[in-house]
């Protein structure tokens, strides 16, 4: 009879420690979300008095109160306003930033280098530094208390970060594709829309995701330009909810926060595959 020796692999305690550290970091990052979900189901007195994560009593009426909205404006109207502004910002950034990036990455024109450097320098410019001049311009045009100040700048390629992101992606695409299209009679615009733009999809999806999240969570700019409660977004409604319902309505406020968080989570989950692809690929496969 022959016996087979069973070999045991040594335990790599370093890898175990790394996994435990990652798990601990994950729990720390997920705790605020768990706290938000739990607090949205707590009674008002328990929100302030208790430090327990799990509610002692489930207060489902917080969500029914949040669904009623604030200032006689339903939550569906607030949600529609938020989607309109975020959707317009996404459309504007994708169109304008991709066109500007194509000009900087593929076309040859005078002062291209200085103009690109000037555009990159605007990334370091604080948003608050240009807010007052922009407000004066939109006020003179009669566009204050409308959605145009929140959407129109996105169609002018004002987000230098996304222009730079798409430029770097386009520079990784082979020029032979455009040269072949040029031989077939395609001009710059046709080459852009039919050759370059489809290959830039991962970068465009990344731009859309971050634009949607940043615009959806924007509070300060919306607070400056929007006065009418009928035009408020969910972000502004959270503040107005406290003002209208007194400081004891923490439960409905957190319930509305959960509702406001859902579109961001769904949007990210729907396009996360393209976000990873944009970070990992160079624009071509095979």
Notes on the structure:
- This protein is an all-alpha fold.
- It folds into two domains: 46 residues, no CATH class; 213 residues, Orthogonal Bundle (MetI-like fold), CATH 1.10.3720.10.
- Helix content is 69%, strand content 0%.
- It contains 14 helices and no strands.
- Helix 4 packs across helix 8 and helix 13 runs antiparallel to helix 14.
- It is globular, with a radius of gyration of 25 Å.
- The protein starts with 12 loop residues before the first helix and ends in a 6-residue tail after the last helix.
- The C terminus is likely disordered.
- Belongs to the binding-protein-dependent transport system permease family.
- It is a multi-pass membrane protein.
- InterPro entries: MetI-like (IPR000515), MetI-like_sf (IPR035906).
Please name the fourth-level CATH homologous superfamily of the largest domain. Answer: MetI-like
Determine the N-to-C terminus distance: 53 Å
Task: Give the C-level CATH assignment of the largest domain.
Answer: Mainly Alpha
Strand content: under 5%
Morphology:
globular
Number of domains: 2
Q: State the order of secondary-structure elements, H for helix, E for strand.
A: HHHHHHHHHHHHHH
> Runs with pLDDT <50, length 5+?
282-286
Organism: Streptomyces swartbergensis
Membrane topology: Multi-pass membrane protein
Protein name: Sugar ABC transporter permease
Keywords: Cell membrane, Membrane, Transmembrane, Transmembrane helix, Transport
A few lines on this structure:
This protein has 14 helices and no strands. It has helices at 13-39, 44-49, 61-67, 75-106, 112-121, 127-140, 148-151, 160-170, 176-183, 188-199, 201-217, 220-225, 234-245, 250-280.
């Amino acid at each position: 009879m022959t016996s087979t020796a069973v070999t045991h692999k040594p335990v790599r305690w370093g890898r175990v420690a790394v996994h435990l550290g990652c798990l601990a970091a994950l729990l720390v990052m997920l705790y605020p979300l768990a706290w938000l979900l739990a607090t949205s189901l707590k009674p008002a007195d328990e929100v302030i008095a208790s430090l327990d994560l799990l509610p002692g009593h489930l207060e489902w009426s917080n969500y029914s109160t949040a669904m009623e909205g604030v200032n006689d404006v339903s939550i569906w109207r607030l949600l529609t306003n938020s989607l309109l502004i975020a959707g317009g910002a996404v459309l504007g950034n994708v169109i304008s930033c991709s066109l500007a990036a194509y000009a900087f990455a593929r076309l040859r024109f005078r002062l291209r280098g200085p103009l690109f450097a000037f555009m990159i320098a605007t990334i370091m410019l604080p948003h608050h530094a240009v807010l007052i001049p922009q407000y004066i311009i939109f006020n003179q045009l009669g566009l204050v208390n409308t959605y145009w100040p929140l959407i129109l700048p996105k169609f002018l390629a004002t987000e230098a970060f996304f222009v730079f992101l798409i430029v770097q992606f386009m520079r990784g695409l082979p020029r032979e594709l455009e040269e072949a299209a040029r031989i077939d009679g395609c001009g710059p615009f046709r080459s852009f829309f039919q050759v370059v733009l489809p290959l830039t999809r991962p970068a465009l999806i990344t731009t859309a995701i971050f634009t949607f999240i940043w615009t959806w969570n924007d509070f300060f700019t919306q607070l400056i330009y929007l006065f009418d409660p009928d035009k408020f977004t969910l972000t502004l409604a959270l503040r107005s909810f406290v003002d209208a319902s007194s400081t004891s309505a923490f439960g409905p406020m957190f319930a509305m926060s959960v509702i406001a968080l859902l579109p961001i989570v769904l949007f990210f989950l729907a396009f996360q595959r393209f976000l990873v692809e944009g970070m990992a690929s160079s624009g071509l496969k095979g």
